[in-house]
């Protein structure tokens, strides 16, 4: 659990969670356990995704994947334990938040993982591998679930725990949906334009796995334009908030849009 | 998810959860979502346990195992989704209980799964297979975690959600620990004393897998005496409660102790 969780990574989800909490007027400690929890869930999804029966990946965050070091059985179990611990940590470590908001946050987070979230995206992704007729709609379904759902969960969790109003939570949910898709479009572009060394993970693997991607469906230039539009749409959602407090989320959207790995 | 969850089984954990809720004066609807949740978690642990990288089992609850029908990748993901959905269902569907108690229940349940619960037992079990020097202490660690932890979680959840006092919750926790161990001791005895036909599953499996068991470590007679003692210790924990309300849990303890398959 520690090996994969502490292997580094961009920590985009925890940062989103904390930034959303502060944007709606909350304090960092209210959302810190949830920020850790969303990273645990992201990590466990990568551990299971890397298994031989799924993507069969040897390298993750610049290190051998979990099952390469500890074996497949332990990689499955450590992922399960991380998933459970994420909920435990929110339940026992969140301070300064009403229990009603904690329960709401747990419900939102859980929904972003299961058969209406991350796992839904993974299953459709697996089933569409090698198919030649995957369209833009199905590609968007995959990414909205596989990547955007947990990003959305991270933001919504922060907004709920920070004491946000229903309207604020929904604006931030929309923001998260745009940057969730933005994140994946940029990932697809980087996979075909960067080397493994630059990425810290195997480059060009989407092509090898014959996966459908945005560059494959619309070309690199149109993919870049689409990324620009998503970034703008995302930032538009923040226009009603205090610009100073919105600055970290705007910076994060720009970071996601213009990152090089 | 449906295929494995709805394949049947003894439903011991949900029954324990509901009985504990009613014993402390709660109503069934308070604990019903949690009763479903503990069965989801039990099921997902079986799905992952049956995988080729773990026990590599072909049959479960009289049907082909999940990965045999849907493939390993889907079996891993469906297990993950069931685990997440268990928490979602408690968070969104529990009624008539204060949010503070729901948060406490979620923390207890999560702890019974991860690196201090079910998964801890699985990992030590995997690591001790084929070893000749596994002692009673290590065997007990495995069962206390692999089997008893979730049984304990089920009872404690029911007691918390039903409105039990701290003292009542702790008495029921002890009850659950005894019957958790009792459950496994009886399982071990049945494995060596009954035929496959009587059990409805492969008998003598532990011997073939060279697994350490109670009969192997202390003989059948001493194992039977140990089971008797555990059943008595468990029932002693219920002496302070209304006998009429305690009757279902006492019946369940006797069912576990004297079952023939």
Describe the structure.
The structure is a homodimer of 261-residue chains. The first copy, chain A, has 13 helices and 2 strands. With 261 residues, the first copy, chain A, is mainly α. Chain A has a two-stranded antiparallel sheet with strand order 1-2. In chain A, strand 1 (59-60) and strand 2 form a beta hairpin. Chain A is globular and about 50 Å long. Chain A binds chain B through residues 1, 44-45, 48, 51, 53-54, 71-74, 76-85, 87-88, 91-92, 98-100, 102-104, 106-107, 109-111, 113-115, 117, 119, 122-123, 126, and chain B through 1, 44-45, 48, 51, 53-54, 71-74, 76-85, 87-88, 91-92, 98-100, 102-104, 106-107, 109-111, 113-115, 117, 119, 122-123, 126. Chains A, B: It comes from Liquidambar formosana. Chains A, B: Its cofactor is Mg(2+). Chains A, B: Keywords: Isoprene biosynthesis, Magnesium, Metal-binding, Transferase. Chains A, B: This is Geranylgeranyl diphosphate synthase.
Question: What's the SSE blueprint?
Answer:
The structure is a homodimer of 261-residue chains.
Chain A: H1 2-5, H2 12-23, H3 28-49, E1 59-60, E2 63-64, H4 66-70, H5 72-93, H6 99-113, H7 118-128, H8 136-161, H9 166-193, H10 196-199, H11 205-208, H12 214-236, H13 243-258
Antiparallel strand pairs in A: 1-2
Keywords:
homodimer; 261 residues; mainly alpha; 13 helices; 2% strand
**Given the structure, what is the number of helices of chain A?**
13
CATH architecture of chain A, by name, is Orthogonal Bundle
Helix content of chain A: over 70%
Q: Can you tell me the CATH topology of chain A?
A: Farnesyl Diphosphate Synthase
Oligomer: homodimer
Structural class of chain A: mainly alpha
| Strand and helix order of chain A | HHHEEHHHHHHHHHH
